[in-house]
Amino acid sequence: PFKTMRLSFVAVVACVVTAVSARAIAENVVPPVRGKAGTLKVFILAGQSNTVGMAEVNLTNHTSGQPSNGSLIYQVNDPRTAQQFSPLWNKAANNWTVFDNIAMWYNEVGQLAKNGTMVNGSKIPGVNGVDACFGPLSVGFGAGCGANQLGKIGPELGFGYGMSQALPAGEKFLIMKNAWGGKTLSGDFRPPTSAASNDPYCTDPATCKQSGHYYDVMMANVAKMMAPGAIGQMFPELAGMTPEISGFGWWQGWNDGCDLNSTAAYEQNLANLIMDLRKAWGNPSLPVSVATSGFMSTDEAAMEAQSRAPASATPWIDQTGAAKLGSNCVNDRGCRRLDVILSQLAGTNSTRHPELAGHAITMNTLPFWREPQYSPAPGQGYHYFHNAETYFNTGVAMAQGMVSVSK
After folding, report:
1. Closest CA to 324 of 209, 211, 199, 212
2. By C-alpha distance, which of 159, 185, 224 is closest to 343?
3. Alpha-helical regions (H) of 86-226
């Protein structure tokens, strides 16, 4: 289903910085994007717990009473990052900036998320704080949205800010986030094309031949959101505008990396996901921006790649069958974390997947990794230690990628 292209770790990471430079991401510089008059751009974000959002906003150190290193309030005040994060703080109000032109909707809300109420779909249109969490974009649209007074963020804050810099000043748009913790692409978000294929890596008969439950729920939620008048009932300021799905952002990968077969299948599952969304939403050129699940630094990833054993003249990404399941890295049985990243980079590559016809990109997030000693939750590497700098920069990178494939 894909063309072979030999990709080393260094080469495949280098590919993603050609469209948007690392400096541009850090400085939030994006070229302008213009849309049709009267059209409301709708951007769909999806994934698992990191897309839900675990980054701390106002967390303080229990001992010193000062902002916790790696929290968003820390980044606003840290001389190293204060300039970059200053747009997020409204000095006049002495509070977090509210982006009134960016409408935000998230499928889970408060304790209902923990009780599993939202796993079978959301009521749309619904009541804010009851059926979903929505309003103008600001902090707090992460885990516990609507109930957590300290607040958390996912990638939506950086993504929304990044897109606002690309669009004409003040243009209104909607971000719709569908995310649930602990979900796989191979099963929970399994796309229909994967279900219809002879996937050599799918070993669970109960899931192989059917689309994933959370894929189906996401599609149902989007359909309800795009129904005539639905958005206007929740966001009166958007009433009368014609919604148009303008892009899809994907940040996910931890749970697939817990299983060798899911890791091996990730590249094709990601390409299938993109194809199926484009078909379902009637846009064969729908822009797609994927963020790597970069649970390590650039140097650590390079070390893992160099340690892979047994050594092979064929890069892992080009191997097939049992060969793709048989290698190990110095810090990871099966090299799963590294290989999910390689699969994410390869899954949007137009040479390997000409069926995508471009308009898809994977953004390298390894430079945004922050070590645990500089983060609020040193024991949760799978949540990037709750580091707000990581989450915000990832969202901005996703916006940068979205802009680069929207032309």
Report:
1. 199
2. 185
3. 110-114, 156-166, 192-196, 205-208, 213-226
Nearest Cα to Cα of residue 292 among 17, 1, 68 = 17
CB-based contacts of 311, cutoff 8 Å, min separation 6 = none
- H-helix or E-strand spanning residue 317: none
Please name the amino acid found at residue 263: T
Helices 260-280 and 336-347: crossing angle, nearest 10°? Answer: 20
- Backbone phi, then psi, for 232, in 5-degree steps? -60, -30
Q: Which of 50, 28, 46 is nearest to 381 (CA)?
A: 50
pLDDT tier for residue 2 given thresholds of 50, 70 and 90 = very low
Question: How large is the average pLDDT for residues 373-392?
Answer: 96
Q: How far is CA 268 from the centre of its chain?
A: 18
Q: What angle do CA 226, 229, 231 make, to 5 degrees?
A: 60
- On whether the CB atoms of residues 364 and 292 are closer than 8 A, the answer is yes
Helix (H, G, I), strand (E, B) or coil at 133: strand
Distance CA 297, CA 303 (A): 10
pLDDT digits (tens, 9 = 90+) for 354-370: 999 999 999 999 999 99
Position 109 scores a pLDDT of 81
| Tokens encoding 252 | 């996910």
Report the distance separating Cα 401 and Cα 394, nearest Å.
10
In DSSP notation, 359-402 reads -EEEE--GGG---GGGSS-TT-GGGGGG-HHHHHHHHHHHHHHH
Give per-residue burial for 137-175: e unless 16+ CB within 10 Å, then b.
bbbbbbbbbbbeeebbbbbbbbbbbbbbbbbeeebbbbb
Beta bridge pairs of residue 328: 309
Q: Which residue has the tokens 């996937």?
A: 199
> 90 by DSSP, 3-state: which?
strand
- Of the candidates 175, 363, 342, 358, which has an alpha carbon nearest to the alpha carbon of residue 266? 342
Q: What band does 196 get if pLDDT is binned at 50, 70 and 90?
A: very high
Q: What is the pTM of this model?
A: 0.92
**pLDDT at position 31 over 60:** no
Q: How far apart are CA 274 and CA 279, in angstroms?
A: 9
From the list 297, 277, 273, 293, the residue with the least C-alpha distance to 285 is: 277
- CB proximity list for 273: less than 8 A, separation 6 or greater: 185, 189, 191, 194, 215, 250
**Mean pLDDT over the full length of the chain:** 90
Per-residue DSSP letters for 228-251? TTHHHHH-GGGTT-EEEEEEEEEE
| Under 8 Å between Cβ of 173 and 235 | no
